[in-house]
Amino acid sequence: MSSQPTGKMHLGNYLGVIKNSVKLAKTTENFYFGIMDLHAYTSNKYSQSFIIEASATLLACGIPQKSLFVQSHNLVHANLSWFLSCLLSVNELNQMIQWKEKLKSGNVGNVGLFTYPILQAADILAYRATHVPIGEDQTQHMVLTRKLANKCRQFLDAPDYLPVPEAILSEIAKDPVSKMSKSDKSKNGCIFITDSPDLIRETVKRAKTDIGTKILYDPVKMPGVSNLMTILGGIKEMDLQSIELEYENLNRYDKFKDIVAELEYSRWMENKNEIEKILKINACDVTKIAMSTYLNLTNCYNTKFNK
């Protein structure tokens, strides 16, 4: 799995991807989580300081030290991306929904945005991933990744060497945090993972709710409280019915808004040298894996098509 170092990670990132990644790490021997800084160049938001901050946040959330790496520390990502781009047509990339939306908005952007899905596929296939936690907005990108995996398997001597990865979708279909405020553009609707418990409590208390006092899940008639229930369920790993039962006698929305998150973020930010050391060591390990994949793919391709 991966994350871009383009800004502070918010609660939506945690509920959508990080939480599932931490779960997967506990049950998977070979688990890798990349900070995909090359992708950040497409939006001109690259920052070295963001890499340290993103690393501290991910480690605090439970991503294992041995699994964390930075994309640009492993040049194989770019090499593999170029190789995979030679297996796709321009028309296949033109079908990507996010690219179509860019065209409709008139903000076409750069070539990097157009080929973005190929680099994303390389990020996954380089490590021969079997399962990838993603948010709902990445579903089509995973379809393309699976297509590329199948294209590669056609010329591999041992097709099973490269698995066709499965997506692990977030239980939360859309980011509920963005709906908390009366205006989606308002900062009132954003909870950053690194916020203090007091600030998180203050932000949640400003969130819109509904007329009444019942804690019931009804996205149509009670969108405000239903939203908070979704967030609470994601954090505490409770289903919506259990939340209704636990809080049925609460009768006050202000008490229900009292959500507090505590992380070890500050401890990691005080040890930046330790983070840099971890990333440097891990870069060597992941490069060996990715290079093995790249060489196997290109050698098999050359053998089959350049006899």
UniProtKB/TrEMBL annotation:
InterPro entries recorded: aa-tRNA-synth_I_CS, aa-tRNA-synth_Ic, Rossmann-like_a/b/a_fold, Trp-tRNA-ligase, Trp-tRNA_synthetase
UniProt-listed Enzyme Commission number(s): 6.1.1.2
Single GO MF descriptor: ATP binding
Key words, A-Z: Aminoacyl-tRNA synthetase, ATP-binding, Ligase, Nucleotide-binding, Protein biosynthesis, Transferase
Any one Gene Ontology BP term: mitochondrial tryptophanyl-tRNA aminoacylation
Enzyme class: ligase
Superkingdom of origin organism: Eukaryota
Cellular component terms (Gene Ontology): mitochondrial matrix
Cited PANTHER family: TRYPTOPHAN--TRNA LIGASE, MITOCHONDRIAL
Family: Belongs to the class-I aminoacyl-tRNA synthetase family.
Protein name according to UniProt: tryptophan--tRNA ligase
